[in-house]
Specification:
Aspartate Aminotransferase, domain 2; three-stranded parallel β-sheet; Aspartate Aminotransferase, domain 1; globular; 2 domains; single chain; four-stranded mixed β-sheet; alpha/beta
């Protein structure tokens, strides 16, 4: 078998080519490219699929988080508690809203923020909690929501990797009342470019979000409040309507591939596998394992044509973009240890069972040899 790429966009497009061509032609024939009927229908379909009252399409997942925070009144001098082990864009969105990210260490099993560390990170300046459903496995929301209610602090879900993920049987994203999605092409629900959405359970907040994404306009050229330019275009909305129809089946395919990995890699010395919690039904956006000699394992897999990536090698408190926060090594030991061991294996719906078995065989052989 030839090498296995980390993701195969050509295969993804090929599988849906007829539907995508029809969707794109519909937009081109309409002559309407921004804030039009495709976006409106997609928002309704997305809200229905996620159990939210409304969905508001925006230009990226980053701006979905930023706009959610702005709609809650978060701004200068405020703090938002989130994870140090996530894509930097989570923290950058907080900065873009004018607030200060405050990090809380993660659970050693799920690598999502631990409720006890979140509780300790709250100060009188905390204006929002922002847990991340990392890799498509839900954060443990019940205790986090309990903390939020007791402290009178809103909780925004960063569900940018968690399309269709379930927590205690319910789709995440708006279980707290508000959440953010990303439609970056690698996501389980991916566009052919950038895109995002805010899920919300309050129609009034949804109306404000629609103003904020469009420069604060109440109607054309009448700007009622400061906003930004963050609009999901009609092409991406049409593409995402196609993807949404196939999301559940593609998530099930990801779970089937993950089951192969879990079966084939069980008991391999030195290799730690993801463990789905009783409250979770993960979408396996990423299949992330841990090994103490991560770099050597990745290099050996690369020699066999098997692509891997690291999500994420440097925790946010140690990134230059957040140097002003004064973070130092040792501040969040669980996240820091994980960042030195995690490696993401290829997993995407178009991947064959044979490819998954081949990747697992290589990992099993090499991981045991390197231990």
């Amino acid at each position: 078998m030839s090498g296995v790429p980390f993701v195969d966009f050509r295969a993804r497009v090929s599988a849906l080519r007829g539907e995508l061509d029809a969707a794109l032609a519909r937009v081109l024939d309409s002559g309407w490219f921004i804030l039009g009927p495709e976006g409106e229908v997609f928002e309704r379909e997305l809200a229905s699929a996620t159990g939210a009252v409304a969905a508001v399409g925006v230009a990226s997942g980053t701006e979905a988080i930023q706009l959610a925070l702005l709609a809650l009144g978060v701004g200068s001098g405020d703090e938002v508690v989130t994870s140090p082990l996530t894509a930097a864009f989570t923290g950058l969105a907080i900065l873009a809203a004018g607030a200060r990210p405050v990090f809380a260490d993660v659970d050693p099993v799920t690598l999502n923020v631990a409720p006890d560390t979140v509780a300790r990170a709250i100060t009188p300046r905390t204006k929002a909690l922002l847990p991340v459903h990392l890799y498509g496995h839900p954060a443990d929301l019940d205790p986090l929501l309990r903390i939020a209610r007791e402290r009178g602090i809103p909780l925004v879900e960063d569900a940018c990797q968690a399309h269709g993920t379930r927590y205690n049987g319910r789709v995440v994203g708006a279980l707290s009342g508000m959440g953010a999605l990303s439609f970056y092409p690698t996501k389980n629900l991916g566009a052919l470019g950038d895109g995002g959405a805010v899920l919300v359970n309050d129609a009034g907040v949804a109306a404000r979000l629609r103003r904020l994404r469009n420069g604060g306009q109440a109607d054309r050229y009448h700007h009622a409040e400061p906003g930004i330019n963050s609009r999901l275009d009609e092409v991406q909305a049409a593409v995402l309507r196609v993807g949404l129809r196939h999301l559940e089946e593609q998530n099930e395919r990801r779970r089937a591939l993950a089951a192969i990995y879990l079966r084939e890699l069980a008991g391999v010395g030195g290799l730690e596998l993801p463990r789905e919690q009783p409250y979770a039904r993960a979408n396996y956006h990423l299949f992330v394992v841990r090994h103490p000699r991560r770099e050597a394992l990745m290099a050996a897999l690369d020699e066999r044509g098997i692509a891997t990536l690291i999500h994420y090698p440097v925790p946010l408190h140690l990134q230059g973009a957040f140097a002003s926060l004064g973070g130092r090594g040792g501040d969040f030991p669980v996240a820091e240890k994980a960042a030195g061991e995690i490696v993401s294996l290829p997993l995407y719906p178009e991947m064959s069972d044979a490819q998954a078995v081949a990747v697992a065989a290589a990992v099993r052989e090499l991981a045991a040899r390197l231990t």
